[in-house]
Every structure is written in structure tokens, then in C-alpha cells.
């Protein structure tokens, strides 16, 4: 199969992976997104966007996504391009080679993690601590049972030998092992309304991806909320290695939100930008929020951390994400992420500025034209701003304290239209650029 379809999941009925468990059907937000002929990017239009060699007409693809999202049957493979896993100016052959290389790299990373903890790749999930804070092993009955089922596997890795001999583990290994049960506890709670996660193997796949990621990104490790971001990717992209690298690309955008110090967490930077935006486009609302002691905009914390997963149904949150990513898309994305010779060669072949602008999403095009060099204000922040603006009258009239602000914002759950919210966010973005334009 060519590379443009290598990750397309054969879902049968488009909604089969999104089926809600019976006991939750009355408690989840109503699904608003429906593929619309002539607007939604269909499988047919997706495949027709490739040249004979495999180059993608990304400009036409973005236009279609921005109008009506991506059909469920091809979301996974399209997301790989939107998130910068592959260069649309690469050939089928180049992408196949890159995919094979990444799968090999993932297997090496996963094997390293398996050496440190045999639960990785075993099909099970750790939900209780396996080491103490100082790295001493904690006996897990499930782990003992696992070993009993493998009587011929008597060899121990160097890490296991250390634990058997009660030798202290390396600090990085200890820190990683301390996160494993936290990942497990989050995984079993993530999207539990979906029939898909009734299958233990599917939960284990999500746990493995997060466990390996927390090892390679030791500066961030694992933080609550990452399972909500990874789950849709794990569902949509069948091959675990491909899903891992797609999640890794998403985290390059969002990892700053999870980077914490002893005094703050990274998302506060985005909250500060949100404050500046509201102050510029709606000073009266900003002043009111400040008077309520909400000037730090902490009530928007969750929206930004997990990209509105709580405010939309599962299906609509996927639609929202692909709308945002298509609007934020920059043709240099792959080159920014991949610094090898292949990426550098592609970066030099992007073409003139006019062609480059045509291959940008609506939001990114405005940023490029306005000379915005930093990306501290992604579309998600303007999306939060659009929600606040939509609730402007109620906030000014009814909010007498921060609890009222939270209550009013909670009312949007299940009631937001993703396309309309993004369109409003673009309007606020343009208004903000005009207000802050340097003369």
C-alpha cells in the first residue's frame, strides 16, 4: 500500500471506534460533527490530492479541512501530515523509508523500556507503584504472576539485576518508574465512555505509548492530561509506532504547557497571553475579570491543557483539533521538526513567499503577513478568547465572583460549534493583530 494510505484505519462504519458504552450514553455531550459532501475532506479527495510520485497538494487539502474537517476513515493519516510527521513535498518512497526508520527507532526505545520494566509491551497496565521514591522495588503480585507465566525466561536485564541486589537505580530510571502507575491510573480513566477501551489491548497500547514517551522526554516526563491528548491518536492510527511519533509531534507543540518549575506550570505563559489578548480586544471584560481577582485567567487552564477535550464530545474534539491544525499549518513544519539532511534539502526547496503563503493555513497566513515570529499565541488561545467573548454579556452581568465565571463557562460543554468557534477565533486574532500592530 502506498504511504498516503498506510495508516488509514479500516473502520467499517465511520462511527465504529466512537461508539459510546450504553451506561454513558445519556451523560456525554451530543455529537454535532457529521461529514458533509462537498466540504469535508473525503477519502476520494484525499487520494486524488497526491501526484504520481506522491507529492501532496497541501493547499487544496487545507482548504477542504478548514471548510468541513476530515472524514473519519482517513483522520489518522491526514493528522500525520497536519502535525508535521511527513513533508507534503516528499514522495511515496521517501515517506515509506522514513516510516520504516521510525518504526525501527520506536522498537529500540520500547525495548529499552522493557529492559527497565517488563510490563511494557506485555499487554497489561501498571496502576500501583513499582518502586519507592528512593528506587527500591515494590513487589507487585501481578508482576509475580507474569513471571510465573514465563518459566523459561530466567535472564535478567542489568536494571533487574540492580533491583534484585537492592542496588540503587539511576535517578532517571527511578523517576521514570515512579510515573508508570500514574500513567496507568490516567489511562483507565481516559475516554472510558468509549466501547473501544473495553479491550484491554487498546488500553495497553495507550499506556505503552505514554510510558515510552515519558522516558524519551525526561525533562517533562508524564503529566496529567497527556493521556487525553494521546488517546485519539492511539485510536485513529493503528500501528503503535506510527501513533507514537504522531503523538511526539503533537507534544512538540504542547510540551511547553506541561513544563513546570517549583513555582509554576508552563500553561501559565499561555494564560498570560490570553490575558493580554482580552485586554486588547475587550478591555471592559478584562477589567471585570481582574476585579473578580481572575486576572491570571486560571479558569481557562483546562481548556488549554487538553485542547477542549472536556468541552466537546469525543468526535467534535477531533473535528476541532483538525480545524485548528489546518488553520495553523505552515509548510516548513516538517523541516522545523526534522533537522536531518533530507529535511534541510526540503526546507531549501519550499519556493517563493507567495507559494509558501498559499500552503499556510488561514491563521498562520495572517501571522506570516503580520511578521509574527513567535508562536506564543496559538489558535487555541484565541479560541478561549472567542468563548469569553461569546459569554461577554453574561460574564459582565452575572459574574460576581470567580465561581460564577467557572459556572458560566461550564455551560458551554456540549453546546459549542467547533467550526463557528474557530471562525470567531480567527476574527479575534485579526482584531488583536490590528490592535497591536506596530506603526
Any descriptors?
439 residues, mainly alpha, 22 helices, 56% helix, globular
DSSP strand count: 0
Span between termini: 53 Å
Look at the structure and give the mean pLDDT.
87
Can you tell me the residue ranges where pLDDT is under 50 for at least 5 consecutive residues?
Answer: 8-14, 143-155, 345-351
Helical/strand content category:
mainly alpha
Q: What is the subunit arrangement here? A: single chain
- Helix % is 55-70%
Q: Percent of residues in beta strands?
A: under 5%
Shape: globular
Helices, by number, come to: 22
Largest sheet: none
- Radius of gyration, CA atoms, in whole angstroms: 23 Å
Strand and helix map with partners:
Layout lengths: L42 H6 L9 H11 L6 H8 L9 H25 L24 H8 L9 H7 L6 H17 L12 H17 L9 H11 L3 H19 L8 H15 L1 H9 L9 H5 L8 H15 L4 H5 L3 H7 L5 H6 L3 H8 L9 H12 L1 H7 L3 H9 L7 H18 L4
What does this molecule look like?
The chain has 439 residues and is mainly α. It is built from 22 helices and no strands.
In short:
The protein has helices spanning 43-48, 58-68, 75-82, 92-116, 141-148, 158-164, 171-187, 200-216, 226-236, 240-258, 267-281, 283-291, 301-305, 314-328, 333-337, 341-347, 353-358, 362-369, 379-390, 392-398, 402-410, 418-435. With 439 residues, it is mainly alpha-helical.
Amino acid at each position: 500500500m502506498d504511504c498516503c494510505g498506510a495508516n488509514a484505519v479500516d473502520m467499517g462504519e465511520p462511527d465504529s471506534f466512537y461508539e459510546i458504552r450504553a451506561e454513558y450514553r445519556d451523560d456525554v455531550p451530543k455529537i454535532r460533527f457529521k461529514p458533509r459532501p462537498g466540504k469535508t475532506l473525503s477519502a476520494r479527495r484525499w487520494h486524488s490530492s497526491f501526484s504520481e510520485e506522491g507529492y501532496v497538494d497541501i493547499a487544496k487539502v487545507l482548504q477542504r479541512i478548514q471548510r468541513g474537517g476530515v472524514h473519519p476513515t482517513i483522520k489518522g493519516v491526514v493528522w500525520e501530515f497536519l502535525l508535521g510527521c511527513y513533508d507534503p513535498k516528499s514522495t511515496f518512497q521517501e515517506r515509506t523509508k522514513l516510516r520504516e526508520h521510525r518504526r525501527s527507532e520506536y522498537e529500540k526505545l520500547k525495548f529499552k523500556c522493557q529492559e527497565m520494566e517488563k510490563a511494557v509491551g506485555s499487554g497489561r497496565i501498571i496502576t500501583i507503584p513499582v518502586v519507592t521514591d528512593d528506587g527500591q522495588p515494590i513487589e507487585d503480585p501481578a508482576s509475580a504472576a507474569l513471571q510465573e507465566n514465563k518459566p523459561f525466561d530466567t535472564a535478567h536485564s542489568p536494571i533487574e539485576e540492580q533491583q534484585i541486589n537492592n542496588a540503587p537505580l539511576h535517578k532517571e530510571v527511578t523517576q521514570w518508574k515512579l510515573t508508570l502507575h500514574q500513567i496507568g491510573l490516567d489511562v483507565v480513566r481516559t475516554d472510558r465512555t468509549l466501547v473501544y477501551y473495553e479491550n484491554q489491548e487498546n488500553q495497553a497500547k495507550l499506556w505503552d505509548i505514554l510510558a515510552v514517551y515519558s522516558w524519551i522526554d525526561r525533562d517533562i516526563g508524564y503529566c496529567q492530561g497527556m493521556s487525553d491528548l494521546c488517546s485519539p491518536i492511539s485510536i485513529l492510527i493503528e500501528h503503535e509506532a506510527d501513533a507514537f511519533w504522531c503523538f511526539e509531534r503533537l507534544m512538540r507543540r504542547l510540551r511547553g504547557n506541561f513544563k513546570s518549575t517549583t513555582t509554576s506550570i508552563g500553561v501559565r505563559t499561555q494564560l498570560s497571553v490570553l490575558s493580554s489578548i482580552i485586554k486588547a480586544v475587550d478591555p471592559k471584560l478584562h477589567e471585570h475579570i481582574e476585579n473578580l481577582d481572575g486576572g491570571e485567567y486560571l479558569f481557562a487552564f483546562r481548556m488549554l491543557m487538553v485542547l477542549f477535550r472536556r468541552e466537546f464530545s469525543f468526535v467534535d474534539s477531533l473535528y476541532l483539533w483538525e480545524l485548528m491544525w489546518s488553520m495553523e499549518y505552515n509548510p516548513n513544519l516538517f523541516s522545523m521538526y526534522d533537522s536531518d539532511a533530507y529535511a534541510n534539502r526540503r526546507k531549501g526547496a519550499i519556493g517563493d513567499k507567495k507559494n509558501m503563503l498559499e500552503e499556510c493555513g488561514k491563521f498562520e497566513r495572517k501571522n506570516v503577513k503580520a511578521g509574527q515570529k513567535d508562536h506564543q499565541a496559538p489558535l487555541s488561545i484565541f479560541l478561549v478568547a472567542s468563548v469569553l467573548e461569546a459569554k461577554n454579556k453574561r460574564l459582565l452581568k452575572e459574574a460576581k465572583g470567580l465561581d460564577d465565571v467557572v459556572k458560566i463557562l461550564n455551560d458551554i460543554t456540549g453546546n459549542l460549534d467547533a467550526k463557528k468557534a474557530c471562525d470567531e477565533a480567527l476574527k479575534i486574532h485579526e482584531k488583536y493583530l490590528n490592535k497591536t500592530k506596530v506603526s
